[in-house]
């Protein structure tokens, strides 16, 4: 099973987008995004939806197979 952060990282890397680029695109800091990707924090649903929109996917994709 994956974490939400691992799913974010996987999708971000598929799109060849850096944390900084995605953070700027969705209005969050790359530090916060990094914290999510390593599991230090979890995003709110609102933030998760912004991230998914920035990745051009449905936010449910980021929740699939999570713990």
Automatic annotation (TrEMBL):
Keyword annotations from UniProtKB, A to Z: DNA-binding
GO cellular component, one term: cytosol
GO molecular-function term, one example from the UniProt record: DNA-binding transcription factor activity
Database matches in CDD domains: HTH_XRE
Name assigned to this protein: Helix-turn-helix transcriptional regulator
Phylogenetic lineage: Bacteria, Bacillati, Bacillota, Clostridia, Eubacteriales
Organism for this UniProt entry: Proteiniclasticum sediminis
InterPro entries: Cro/C1-type_HTH, Lambda_DNA-bd_dom_sf, TransReg_Diox_bact_type
Domain HTH cro/C1-type span(s) in chain numbering: 8-62
A Pfam family the protein falls into: HTH_3
Keyword rRNA-binding in record: no
Stored SUPFAM superfamilies: lambda repressor-like DNA-binding domains
């Amino acid at each position: 099973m994956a974490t939400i952060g691992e799913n974010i990282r996987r999708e971000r890397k598929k799109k060849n987008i850096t944390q900084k680029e995605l953070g700027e695109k969705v209005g969050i800091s790359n530090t916060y995004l990094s914290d999510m990707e390593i599991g230090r924090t979890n995003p709110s649903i609102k933030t998760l939806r912004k991230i998914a929109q920035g990745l051009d996917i449905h936010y449910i994709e980021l929740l699939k197979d999570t713990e």
